[in-house]
Amino acid sequence: MTDLPKQRVDTPTNFPPFEQPCPIRDVLDRIGDQWSLLLLESLAPGRKRFSELGREIGDISKQMLSRTLKQLEQDGFITRTVYPEVPPRVEYELTDLGQSFRGPMQALVQWADANHRVIVEARNRYRGLD
């Protein structure tokens, strides 16, 4: 039996690190949180200021609004533009990536709206509340 030279085998540790190895879970973790879809939906018609977004969403704290906007900007869904005015004006809008998500987002929103009653009824049956 001859000894073959050992070859390097690439394993996931040889590749650049990702926060999440599963692309589906990685993306759904972001857009599936409590606020991201609502903010993306709110920005679909066009750019808005921080205060406008806060009023539209209603029950989101300023801290959570700021954090979610930063995460969406980090992931490339939105852009943040600061205007050199006094007081400073900041506007947010969807990027091309954010715009490309509008179709799937609308389908999800419509599906959720059409099936919400059925889902609530199933939850109640499961809990014995029907």
TrEMBL record:
| Pfam families, alphabetized | HxlR (PF01638)
Q: Does the keyword Transcription apply?
A: yes
Keyword check for Oxidoreductase:
no
Give the molecular function GO annotations.
DNA binding
Provide the alphabetized UniProt keywords.
Answer: DNA-binding, Transcription, Transcription regulation
Specify the domain of life of the species encoding this protein.
Bacteria
Q: Which InterPro entries match?
A: ArsR-like_HTH (IPR011991), HTH_HxlR (IPR002577), WH-like_DNA-bd_sf (IPR036388), WH_DNA-bd_sf (IPR036390)
**Residues in domain HTH hxlR-type?**
22-120
For the biological process aspect of GO, one term held by this record is:
regulation of DNA-templated transcription
Q: What is this protein called?
A: Transcriptional regulator HxlR family protein
Organism in which the protein naturally occurs: Salinisphaera shabanensis E1L3A
